[in-house]
Amino acid sequence: MARRDDDSWDITESVGATALAVAMARADETTSEHPLFTDPYAQAFLDAATARGWRRPRGPMAERIRAISGYAASRTKWFDEFFIAAGANGIRQSVILGAGLDSRAWRLPWIQESAVYEIDQPQVLQFKAEVLQSQHAQPGTHYVAVPVDLRQDWPKSLQAMGFDATQPTAWSVEGLLPYLPADAQDVLFERITGLSALGSRVGVEAFAAEFFTERYLARRRDQMRQLREQAGAAGEDMPDPEGLWFIEERAMVTEWLSERGWQVSMIEADDLMARYHRAVSPDAEGGSMPTEFVEAVLVEHYES
Question: How would you classify the pairing of strands 93-97 and 201-207?
Fold first, then answer.
């Protein structure tokens, strides 16, 4: 499905289906010998999607998911720790942007009187609600679904659902930026900053500068071509993830935030995986991931 400025999706199509790939990685991590985390709902999401006609990736696509499983597990663990640390610092209000099939509101230990807001496409949040209800799952804190497209006026919808911009907030931007054009990324962070009280925190999975080098992009295109050819030879269809992405040079997140009142720290993906004793297969991304994990605290209000 080609991207459009006004496109939308269900859980089994377009960007929505990428949430199932992430759930697949989380389900596999949960049943591994030494998991970094456990997600007791990931497999239920996959089972429900299968009942709707979704087919679990096989062949080259499944191999690719396995190859980057160390990255996916490390990313999940980093954001888990981000929210736990925010709570330890007294932040009681959290917003998960582009939530997909995230289940942190149900599986993390939240401090008392916390609230977690999730923003995503209406059909995606509806699917998740139905599955969790079928599992008799109860959130560990006050949970609020905000069904709105992030390209629309989501701050208005968020505040209408009870969000309090005068209170510090923990924001997560995980697995989201590739699906936004460069200008939409700027708007996203402008809105986050505008809604953040002093002491607010944001955690971001961001592009590293290397991602936009022609060397890396050419290698990635060649890798995707080979995988599609292998899938075709096996009689399988393999969607092109880049067809869902906006491969556009954009502001570096660390610089953008630093210039607008945020105190920023960053760890590169390879260093994060080393921290958790995980790695990417040498056959995937050349054995290195050109992303970085950014954590920032708002220490002063920015005036343009």
Answer: unpaired
DSSP lists the bridge partners of residue 1 as none
pTM value? 0.91
Q: Nearest to residue 100, comparing CAs of 6, 16, 170, 192?
A: 16
Question: pLDDT, tens digit, for every residue of 41-85?
Answer: 999 999 999 998 888 877 777 777 788 899 999 999 999 999 999
- CA dihedral (221, 179, 192, 190) positive or negative: positive
Note whether 200 and 175 are within 8 A (CB). Answer: no
